[in-house]
């Protein structure tokens, strides 16, 4: 399911609502969105929950509003302001220079209130419990970082980045580079890998229309290159058996003649083995 998450809800709350709409406990999501964020949340239902672990989403796209001159405890609008500076004198040229320095392959320190786990606990939980959290920097790729407009000290931006990038951290680093501080006041996710917000529906839509956005067949084929297999090979893969290698690189979706995606497969030595069986023979 492709859900346009509303502001003010956690991703977990969205999952809870969909469990009620579909009458099943087997619901999960890929890629958490903070409560203040809106936009694309990819949700798996029933068998689709098992596919989420294999979902390829190497890049994501966001639109955001960054406010210069204010720092907050959470690096976004949900936190308390900890520092305020007059940022009206910051020029467009200075902003462009800092944005250029934050584009490409960079090292980014995730926000201390992120969902990253530290010793089994989410970082934001540790912060709420009064612990000081400092997450080590990690490599991310900012494919593009575009300024869409400026109104006073508010910048509207669009960011196309690798999975694992924190837009709050990007706003924080931009503010630090300019010497005035900054935080995120709005965030909207537009794409997750091959999935686009244009194919999504607001959460409320699914209450009256509990239907999938994509079948499991469509999802597998959207995320991976495909390999056509015969009916006999499809049956073998559905039973967890392996096929003869054929020079494939990386993971592929094995698709039967009738268009069904049977499994994700990958060459492992002298075997073309299953990574995930979407349609096991036992079902």
TrEMBL record:
Its EC number is 5.4.99.25. Residues 19-167 form the Pseudouridine synthase II N-terminal domain. Gene3D superfamilies: Pseudouridine synthase (3.30.2350.10), PUA domain (2.30.130.10). Residues 224-279 form the tRNA pseudouridine synthase II TruB subfamily 2 C-terminal domain. Keywords: Isomerase, tRNA processing. Residues 168-209 form the tRNA pseudouridylate synthase B C-terminal domain. InterPro entries: PsdUridine_synth_cat_dom_sf, PsdUridine_synth_N, PUA-like_sf, PUA_sf, tRNA_psdUridine_synth_fam2_C, tRNA_psdUridine_synth_TruB, TruB_C. It holds the Pfam family TruB_C. GO terms for biological process: mRNA pseudouridine synthesis; tRNA pseudouridine synthesis. GO terms for molecular function: RNA binding; tRNA pseudouridine(55) synthase activity. The active site is at residue 34. It catalyses: uridine(55) in tRNA = pseudouridine(55) in tRNA. The keyword Isomerase applies. Responsible for synthesis of pseudouridine from uracil-55 in the psi GC loop of transfer RNAs. PANTHER family: PSEUDOURIDYLATE SYNTHASE TRUB1, TRNA-PSEUDOURIDINE SYNTHASE. Belongs to the pseudouridine synthase TruB family. Type 1 subfamily. NCBIfam families: TruB. This is tRNA pseudouridine synthase B. It comes from Corynebacterium pyruviciproducens ATCC BAA-1742. The lineage of its organism: Bacteria, Bacillati, Actinomycetota, Actinomycetes, Mycobacteriales. The gene is truB.
């Amino acid at each position: 399911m492709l859900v346009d998450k509303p502001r003010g809800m956690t991703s977990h709350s969205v999952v809870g609502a969909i469990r009620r709409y579909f009458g099943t406990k087997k619901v999960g999501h890929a890629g958490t969105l903070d409560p203040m964020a809106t936009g694309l949340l990819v949700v798996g239902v029933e068998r689709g929950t098992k596919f989420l672990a294999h979902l390829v989403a190497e890049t994501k796209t966001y639109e955001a509003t960054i406010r210069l001159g204010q720092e907050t405890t959470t690096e976004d609008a949900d936190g308390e302001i900890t520092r305020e500076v007059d940022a009206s004198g910051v020029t467009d040229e200075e902003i462009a220079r800092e944005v250029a320095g934050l584009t490409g392959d960079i090292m980014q320190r995730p926000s201390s209130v992120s969902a990253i786990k530290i010793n089994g606990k989410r970082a934001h939980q540790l912060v709420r419990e009064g612990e000081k959290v400092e997450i080590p920097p990690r490599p991310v790729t900012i494919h593009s970082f575009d300024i869409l407009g400026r109104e006073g000290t508010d910048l509207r931006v669009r960011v196309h980045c690798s999975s694992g990038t924190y837009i709050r951290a990007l706003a924080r680093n931009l503010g630090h580079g300019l010497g005035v501080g900054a935080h995120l006041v709005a965030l909207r996710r537009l794409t997750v890998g091959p999935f686009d917000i244009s194919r999504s529906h607001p959460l409320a839509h699914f209450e009256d229309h509990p239907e999938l956005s994509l079948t499991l067949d469509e999802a597998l084929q959207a995320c991976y290159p495909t390999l056509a297999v015969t009916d006999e090979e499809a049956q073998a893969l559905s039973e967890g058996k392996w096929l003869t290698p054929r020079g494939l690189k990386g993971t592929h979706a094995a698709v039967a003649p009738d268009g069904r995606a049977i499994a994700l497969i990958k060459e492992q030595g002298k075997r073309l083995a299953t990574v995930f069986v979407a349609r096991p023979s036992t079902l």
